[in-house]
Amino acid sequence: QVQLVESGGGLVQPGGSLRLSCAASGIISRFNVMGWYRQAPGKQREPVAHIFRGGSTNYADSVKGRFTISRDNAKNTLYLQMNSLKPEDTAVYYCRGEGVGLVYWGQGTQVTVSS
């Protein structure tokens, strides 16, 4: 059983930056893909960014050029660097890991972008 624990959320002004972390209790290099998702109030959870085992990444159009996903296999930690934050980025951000036949989610961390 793998546990994922997010941290790094908070309140930030528009144009500011935050870095989210997702610490895994297991070995993240075993995951085929890891990702960040977010859910705003009254909306469905949506994908933000993914990083695959080989290192390739993809991003939602709304965050391209502003967010960067990365991982440190030695620390079993996934990151999301978020720059140029906008009010519409306000949401609960979730970490997700997918292995063979299994999917793990973290509990989420709140990100609020407001002046």
What can you see in these coordinates?
With 115 residues, this protein is mostly beta strands. It has no helices and 11 strands. The mean pLDDT is 95.
How would you sum up this structure in a few lines?
The protein is mainly β and 115 residues long. 0% of the residues lie in helices and 51% in strands.
Question: What brief labels describe this structure?
Answer:
mainly beta; 0% helix
SS content category: mainly beta
Low-pLDDT segments: none
Q: Averaged pLDDT, please?
A: 95
In helices, the fraction of residues equals under 10%
In terms of quaternary structure, the protein is: single chain
- Note the overall shape: globular
Helix and strand topology:
Elements: E1 4-7, E2 10-12, E3 18-24, E4 33-39, E5 46-52, E6 57-59, E7 67-72, E8 77-82, E9 91-98, E10 103-105, E11 109-113
Parallel strand pairs: 2-11
Antiparallel strand pairs: 1-3, 3-8, 4-5, 4-9, 5-6, 7-8, 9-10, 9-11
